[in-house]
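Suppose a colleague, Dr. K., hands you the sequence of a protein chain of 261 amino acids and asks what its three-dimensional shape might be. Before reaching for any lab equipment, you can write down a predicted structure in token form. Begin with the sequence itself:
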Amino acid sequence: MRVIGVTSGKGGVGKTTVSVNLAVELAKRGKKVVLLDGDLGLSNAQILLNARVEYSYGHVLSGQKTLEEIMVPSEYGVTLVPGSSGSSALARLTRLQLLGLIHALSALDDCDYLVVDTAAGISDNVTVLFGACDIKLLLIQNEPSSIADAYATVKVLQQEFNLSDIMLTPVQVTNERESENIHKRINKVTAQFLGLSLEYATGIRKDPVVLNSARLGQPAILHAPESDIAKDIRRLVDVITETVSKPAGSSDIRISVGAKG
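The predicted structure, expressed as tokens, is then:
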């Protein structure tokens, strides 16, 4: 199993949109995909997948259900592990509880890719889950607060978890040139102050089709396959598949991440 994490320092940049469409595109390519709605207290991936959710990870924590029992198949070939909507308790899990979730996910059978759609910010719910991923996509917008929050996220991940393999993914851009310029700007800062060079994934263009597809409960990659965002998602998946084809030390979730402290 390969694990893809999608996060951002700032909320509202489109993490769930990218995560869901990324997962669906992988499924279209014949992969068996599980999507974890890692925004455990404010989950909404089920809306974009048009999936009916009866139980959440809270039922697993309480011992009422197993992880497999709360998993929901969708009509788009992606199986969802739902969080909960409006649960402050799930938004503040301890590191031990988060590591228990990671351990349970690592034991899933018959799964090629696990896509982790994290919450925004730098809480343990975000950093522990994101740090356990093989491929780490950090979404960023071309506006000051998003750039500042992205830098803060990188700083925390490096200092607390010694993570350096982060791929920057600019979103809601107008073209690839703007996307590459965002990468150059923040990469210059992280290199100067953190001694860290960020990899570049690709840009995701702003596209009005996203709102329409959300209203229909259908991922944009299927609703409008020739749209800008669909083309960009396919390019992102190409980058990911090229990355995972390179030799790696392990394809398992790294349970040790976040165990300190």
